[in-house]
Amino acid sequence: METSLVKGKSQIKGQSQMTYQRQRKWLGAIFSLPALALLFTFLVLPVILAFIYSFMNYNMLNPDGKTFTGLENYKRLFQDEVFFTALKNTLYFTVLVVPLQCSVALLLAILVNKKVKVASLGRVFFFSPVVTSMVVVAILWTFLYNVDNGIINNTLNFLGINSQPFLLSPNQAMNSIIFMSIWQAAGFQMMIFLAGLKEVPDTLYEAAEIDGANAFQKFLHVTLPSIQHVTGFVLIITTIQAFRLFIQPYVMTNGGPSDSTKTLVFMLYENGFQFRDVGYSSAIAVVFFLVVILVSLILKKVLKQ
Amino acid sequence: MTHRTKKRIGKIGVTIAILVLGFLFISPLLWMIIASLKPETLIFKDMGLAAFIPKEMTFSNYSKILFAENINFFHYMWNSLFSVGMIVLFGTIVNSLCAYALVRLKFPGSDFILVVIIALYVVPFESVLIPLYIVVNKFGWINEFPALVVPFVASAFNIFLFRQFFMGIPRELEEAAQIDGASPLQVFWKIIVPNSKPVFATAAILTFVTHWSDFMWPLIVATDDSIRTVQVGIQYLFTDNNIQYGQIMAALTLTTIPVILIFLFFQRYYVQGITSSGVKG
């Protein structure tokens, strides 16, 4: 020990150091084994299985009767009207939620980034819906949206506006879910934007002010370019999150009325666990997986992340 | 108008905007909490601002939801706390050890494994739902606690989070301990862990909050009332025609309390977790 301290690490060629290095490699493999074994069993293997099952006629109630049927499930999927409705609903939700939610989040972040006394209070208020789980939020808002005694319709009546059906109407159900979802999650994106805004040096704003820029010009020419990287990241995670829409329609509308809130994940769940059709549900899962990967790759490319 | 007054007007404008928007954001939750403290008859009778003022406070909704014979809510809460607690405990150990091995105890193939782990992070959970159910079923875990815990112990994201942090710890610290004859496990336990408290806190909190709100998976693997988690369980409080709104609001509030507590006491780490998810891109 004494000598190794004096000689320094590079000069040690002794037997014990050799064993130590070899031992290190072994231990590295052993230390990472539990996590890797779990990841393989519960993530890698299911991914592979999803692909395999998607080419099979496989019902959960009759697991021994499963047979390979080639592209049969995919053929059925692309002839299924419900699938196109679900795809359309999922895209509609995503296309509306992503820009709206990100804009709201950025606005909130800019507000609470200002040096005013209520900024930290605002941060807590805007973030508060995020600490509430989506299930809790969905149940709560089902009551708020209630036609007869919901607080939203009461407020509308108070303002002289007629009661709205909200979740009971095929035209309003998805929009009601969109509004609630933005309210629930904007605070999350706000926190990420806020971290980005804090990195923008004050000197940039001061320089812009000297050049006579107004608030909007500062936002356009200083803020936005400085947080470009953060914006790209927020857009990608919000998009992926939007594609996964399930809890809201499950709790609030059960996919209805008349399939107006049925999403891809809802359809996947329905076929897998209500109709027990593993093969068909896996085909939906594979298509869903590919759509999510494809969209995030395109976004990455476009945003040059 | 001078520059100063212009600034002041701007500040007043921002303050008003924050307060108005802030009220819009907090009011549904405020209503939930206040309704949970009201007698049933007053919940929908109080309208407008009165809806936000508890004139007759009562905790009877809470005592009913927690202690009434025919309501298993307390049990659901316990199931959630227990299973999520297990995920946090085992997950922290397993993922941090794996990350340490990938950073400092490199073995043949470890760099490739890291790339795979990062790639795995993009797999949306929903796409493996059915095969995962079949795998878990093969283990015989449907309606057993392991189904709620074991599949979520290892986390690609947490491994990556730990890795990023461990890379920043100076090697000299570990080398000094090695020279003193410490084994890699001792180095990990005595040098790495004490120097990585923030990342352990962040990973633990993020894991807790994420799995506390899990819904889809417990919905399909925990169908038995004895193992039902709270997010799924709340649904079963109002299947009757006679809906007790006060009790439901009390249940919703109780379900939210663990995360509120985390937010209040560990706000820094919680927010760090959210923003650090930004490095993974």
TrEMBL record, chain B:
<dbReference type="InterPro" id="IPR035906">
    <property type="entry name" value="MetI-like_sf"/>
</dbReference>
<dbReference type="Pfam" id="PF00528">
    <property type="entry name" value="BPD_transp_1"/>
</dbReference>
<feature type="transmembrane region" description="Helical">
    <location>
        <begin position="12"/>
        <end position="34"/>
    </location>
</feature>
<keyword id="KW-1003">Cell membrane</keyword>
<feature type="transmembrane region" description="Helical">
    <location>
        <begin position="81"/>
        <end position="103"/>
    </location>
</feature>
<comment type="similarity">
    <text>Belongs to the binding-protein-dependent transport system permease family.</text>
</comment>
<keyword id="KW-0812">Transmembrane</keyword>
<keyword id="KW-1133">Transmembrane helix</keyword>
<dbReference type="GO" id="GO:0055085">
    <property type="term" value="P:transmembrane transport"/>
</dbReference>
<keyword id="KW-0472">Membrane</keyword>
<protein>
    <submittedName>
        <fullName>ABC transporter permease</fullName>
    </submittedName>
</protein>
<dbReference type="InterPro" id="IPR000515">
    <property type="entry name" value="MetI-like"/>
</dbReference>
<feature type="transmembrane region" description="Helical">
    <location>
        <begin position="245"/>
        <end position="266"/>
    </location>
</feature>
<feature type="transmembrane region" description="Helical">
    <location>
        <begin position="148"/>
        <end position="166"/>
    </location>
</feature>
<dbReference type="GO" id="GO:0005886">
    <property type="term" value="C:plasma membrane"/>
</dbReference>
<feature type="transmembrane region" description="Helical">
    <location>
        <begin position="112"/>
        <end position="136"/>
    </location>
</feature>
<keyword id="KW-0813">Transport</keyword>
<feature type="domain" description="ABC transmembrane type-1">
    <location>
        <begin position="77"/>
        <end position="266"/>
    </location>
</feature>
